[in-house]
Amino acid sequence: MRRRSTIREVASRAGVSYQTVSRVINNSPDVADATREHVLRVIAELDYHPNAQAVSLSRNRTDIVGIIVDTVTSTFFAQTIDGVVKALRRHGRFTLLATVEDATQFDVIDTLQRSRRIDGMVIVLPLANSLSLSRLTPGRVPTVHIDLQYDMDVYGITVNNYRGARLATEHLIDLGHRRIGIITGRHDIPVGQLRLDGYRAALRDHGIPFDPTLIAPGDFSFASGVAGAERLLALDPRPTAIFACNDLMAIGTLHVATRYGLRIPADLSVMGFDDTPEAALACPPLTTMRQPLRAMGEMAADLVCRLIDGEQPEQMRYTVETELVVRFSTGRCPGD
To answer: Which domain of life does the protein's organism represent (predicted)?
Structure first.
């Protein structure tokens, strides 16, 4: 194995001090152009690569940003991570990825914040409750949250869940549906309540009485979508449309409808939320509300880089809107 060249060997070959080599590596302006070009040629000849840890210590920064997510197995989080990573790359920064499988992992996040291994953090924990999030010590490193719905004094990128759910329900109403079931998200986090509130607001604005029997509890999982659909489709009369508060539960609803021999959308319309890749692959392809997940990741990365560089952004929270994506799982109300 070839021995790695050292900074002093570069300095000796170039005929300059090792401090000059260091200034060239750190792109200091206090080096003449001719000297800089000469030192860079020698660095290339010797295939010299600075010790990253030593450079980070000298600059008091690592150019690494931590990304904290619930899981990497969900396409929801995968799209968000992709946006963060690509934007950080444009800023010349790298990524340290960590997942939070249970509450004890928040201790790991706290340790990461206290360490000198990262310059900032992007946290994507939309399913965390306020108690868990309160354990994250603020202020140790610049931090930006994605899809944080709590009223906390932190930087964040948030989606308008209330308006998105309202638009989703209005889409079904515009198709003539009046008996619209909903499979909710978790009741212990704001996103679930906000989407339910948007559903109820759309009904109210269109003069449709609210019927609590048309609410089926869910937790954003496929299994809860199946259970919620079975509960709603057992009603008499059954709903002509179901709004599931995420795509995974909507796909669970499609499975139940197929098992019951219902045609989608001739007998039952099904609406999702998120527009994950699975939505377009469902049978039939799912009508849903698109969250700009990659764009949110990019916005968060840009914001955390600004904070790391010492900027003071004009606002702390940024809200993005959802977009209706009409495919083949929604149609006119039967008999309309």
So the answer is: Bacteria
